[in-house]
Fold this protein.
Amino acid sequence: MRVLGIETTCDETAAAVVSLSSRGCGDILSNEVMSQIAEHAAYGGVVPEIAARAHVDVLDRLVERALATSGCSIHDLDGIAAAAGPGLIGGVIVGLTFGKALALAADKPFIAVNHLEAHALTARLTDGIEFPYLLLLVSGGHTQLIAVRGVGDYKRLGTTIDDALGEAFDKVAKMLGLAYPGGPQVEKEAMEGDPQRFDFPRPMLRRPGADFSLSGLKTAVRLEAERIAPLRPQDVRDICASFQAAVVDVIIDRIRHALRAFRQDNGDPSALVVAGGVAANGAIRRSLTRFCGESGLHLVLPPPALCTDNGAMIAWAGLERLRHGMTDGLDFAARPRWPLDPEAERVNNGKA
Ligand code: KG4
Ligand code: ZN
């Protein structure tokens, strides 16, 4: 079984071909990503209109390249998948329309993929892990703890009530004068910083439930930076290290709470799975490795290139859905907002 996946929900244009391997996981036959970071850098964030136009500019060549690298022609495919949301509507429409047109022209089944579901299922592509598992999804737009019980079967255990984690990294970077996107910059600075110099708050620590709140931490960082201004390079490094240490403590605490809720309803999870761009952070990866080692929990950390937005995850989610006969009509509309768990309460401005 081979599926082409197309991703255009944010600032990466991506296309990939994935096949089902005999081991039950996926083989990535090609995985082409073109980042638009340079186009948005001057604005300090993603500009939706620029993103949509940039997707139009490169998508056809990228899909051609993904097919050529995989050694498949469009006729060898079993299905065509495109991310249909959630994300920036202009970009989503570009990839979705392209995918539908290809499916129509080649007479192939079409699968409209939820971008969050694709992040959630990546651990099955890389490691073939069994349901149910606990997912920590941490990206620029999402911060969620989810019980993944099956394809299309998700229960949200926690979400952020304000900023997403990646957004907090990006905002802290901006206030410290670091380049966009901020997450990798903060991590780099933190490597030579003192994580104990500033005692930043750990919002929600030990509170019931598994929700996150990051805006108070972000404000504390801003106030401290203003208090000790002008900042010397070592101040920036220490602030980054102290911020990251606070984030790590919050993440581990929230996972502990989510695990308790998970076990009540589903028994033991087969693994803790981490996904989303922030999962590329080395300090977070190390602390999760330590935590899972101590708690005897299997940890699946996909390689950073599969944690950030990519086409392989869309192709794989499409493949999983296709195997279950879950295909979509060509009238499927783009969804700027598309929660994985529709029953979950809406807690913030639509990001969750
Ligand atoms: O999943 P992703 O590529 O895009 C979406 O938001 O869907 O995640 C991007 C986010 C950005 O906020 C970026 O700053 C953050 O992930 N990020 C990191 C690191 N690499 C990327 N945050 C912390 N440490 C990193 N190494
Ligand atoms: Zn994403």
The mean pLDDT is 95. The pocket of KG4 (ligand 1) is lined by residues 10, 139-141, 166, 169-170, 181-184, 187, 276-278, 280-281, 308-309 (CB under 6 Å).
